[in-house]
Amino acid sequence: MPDIIRLLPDSLANQIAAGEVVQRPASAIKELLENSIDAGATDIKVIIKEAGKTLMQVMDNGKGMSETDARMSLERHATSKISKTEDLFSIRTMGFRGEALASMAAVSQLEIKTRQPDAELGTLLYVEASEVKKQEPVACEQGTSICIKNLFYNVPARRNFLKSNGVEMKHITDEFQRVALANPEVAFSLYQNDLETYNLPAGKLSQRIVNLFGKNYKEQLASCHEEAGEISIHGYIGKPEFAKKTRGEQFFFVNKRFVRSNYLNHAVMNAFEGLLAEGSFPFYVLFIEIDPIHVDVNVHPTKTEIKFDDERTVYAIVRAAAKQALATHNITPALDFSADINLGSKMNFSRETIKDKNYSQFRSTGNSNLQKSNQEHWEKLFHEHPGKGSMNRDIEREEPADAGSMTLTFESNLNTKSESEVMAAEHKKSIFQLHQKYIITQVKSGMMIVDQQAAHERILFEKYMGCLKSSKGASQQTLFPQTLSLNPGDHSLVMEMEEELRALGFLVEPFGKNDIIIKGMPAEIGAANEKEIFEGLIEQFKRNKSELSIPRKENLARALAKRTALKHGTRLSEDEMSGLIDQLFACDSPNYAPNGQVTFYILELNKIDNFFNK
Questions:
Q1: Where does the record place the DNA mismatch repair protein S5 domain (predicted)?
Q2: Each residue of 104-145: pLDDT tens digit?
Q3: Topology of domain 210-362, CATH
């Protein structure tokens, strides 16, 4: 039999590698930005057109490359950062694998212009599908400019899997923000379709956070700093009162590399225990500096997942740093009796970091439990000993009526209630609220239990979808227009959805570079905190966008219904409960909330009988 195993051509091998390294335009931007940082650039400019599908260009003023280096950079596994096995365990640079440029060149039309500081002329390279079409000297600025055109032009199947321009641009913005946060000493700028989105001067981390996310972040930053042995942690955490309902703006950097870690996130959330409303997430930007020998950064192709050789110690230090920051800013008591101060192990720390968990739980919940207990006792006292007016009414009811003033009533059709009135009265008597969460009412087959929040979400969702389809949402102008500062990404998102927002009843106008003015709100929302509702709508919209593949209008309707629906814990009158049930069964799909949650359940009478062995 003939041999069947053979080596792949380089061009095909590079295309396969591109599937791991260049998953979407944002992946290419990340690699190029990291290369610019490693080249010592102090000013980096990013130009994007059509969300990176037609053009991505990154220009820097770094040290540039020689003619030979420029050509070698397009070869697979070519790198200037690793020469022996030991180097893999002491990596402090960003891009080190050496396959990024080769992979990009395999699936795009790529142009490189680069010049070293001491060279009079630079080098121009033009590559299509891994084939070098042009190489010549060129006059250019010091540093490197890499331009990627028509990404995936020769792999149409991959190009078809790219999302809409809005989604892809959001991913690019996310990568840009992460690199910009990790390097506040470097100036960055981002241009989208010839419009400036970000212009970030070099400065302090706090200035970079404000320039990226908006002026309103200036008030919420609590500085965080902790050193113990070989670990150093610094950065900022957001104060609890500024927490949002989505966990988007949470950043961990290990040796200036952005990482995702549910384990470390749990450490920060643990420090906020008892300070956050349910379902709220704080803002934080935390940098962990640690000897690279204790970290494996080569776990995942995107290098966003890492491993520590002593995770429990890192967890303890992160948690202690967050608690200390909250205490320093008078947000929580400074003494932390739950942490072991004797930290020492193979990284000069102890693995046993939490000794007295029971005390910690008492400290975080004890006061609230005591307050709740006192409140229940006062309420009980109030009901057992009602006010004077109530007592007088009871006495008046107990006094016998005067015989001379007695009224005789004769039977007449005028005094007889109709059957429908009797039915309505019975229905009204049989409806009540359970724990301010469920509505319970009697039905013919047994008992119906309605989840008031899920039911209201369904009602509002169908109402908002109707407004979006007809573009006739009722709006109520605000007495005092509210100015809202947004980060550039959110501002462009709002402007992109201006027509849909107006159909729902929002009247918003641009005001300045990244600010908007809220002049009107949907009429059915009524008097409310306009800023809070609008910010919540945008956050929920972004969260839905990241988790679901649904049209924009449906996403908006879902997001607004989620943010404005009745919440569990809201007390309702009998009329309000009856009205909610009537509106629910007037919906096209009353059985389920927009997220698929059941809105009501009928407990049949025979099942209830079974509970009593009947």
A1: 209-327
A2: 888 899 999 999 999 999 999 999 988 899 999 999 999 999
A3: Ribosomal Protein S5; domain 2 (3.30.230)
Q: Which residues contact 339 (CB under 8 A, 6 or more apart)?
A: 316, 319, 320, 323, 353, 354, 355
Topology at the third CATH level for domain 10-203 = Heat Shock Protein 90 (3.30.565)
Angle at 354 between CA 348 and CA 355, to 5 degrees: 115
Class of the CATH domain delimited by 422-614: alpha beta
- Beta strands (DSSP E) in 214-326 are 221-228, 231-238, 250-254, 257-259, 284-289, 295-296, 307-308
Per-residue b or e along 451-480, where b marks 16 or more CB atoms closer than 10 Å to that residue's CB = bbbbbbbbbbbbbbbebbeeeebebeeeee
Domain ranges of the chain: 10-203, 210-362, 422-614
What is the token pair recorded at 200? 């970030």
Q: What are 576's two structure tokens?
A: 């309000």
Backbone angles phi, psi at 418, to 5 degrees: -70, 160
Task: Tell me the chain's radius of gyration from C-alpha atoms.
Answer: 32
pTM for the full model? Answer: 0.65
The H or E element spanning position 479 is strand 475-485
State both tokens at 90. Answer: 């002491």
DSSP class per residue in 38-69: HTT-SEEEEEEEGGGTSEEEEEE-S----HHH
pLDDT in tens, 47-77: 999 999 999 999 999 999 998 888 888 886 6
Task: Evaluate whether 124 touches 111 at the Cβ level (below 8 Å).
Answer: yes
Classify strands 307-308 and 507-510 as parallel, antiparallel or unpaired.
Answer: unpaired
Burial 203-241 (b: 16+ CB within 10 A, else e): eebbebbbbbbbeebeebbbebebebeebebbbbbbbbe
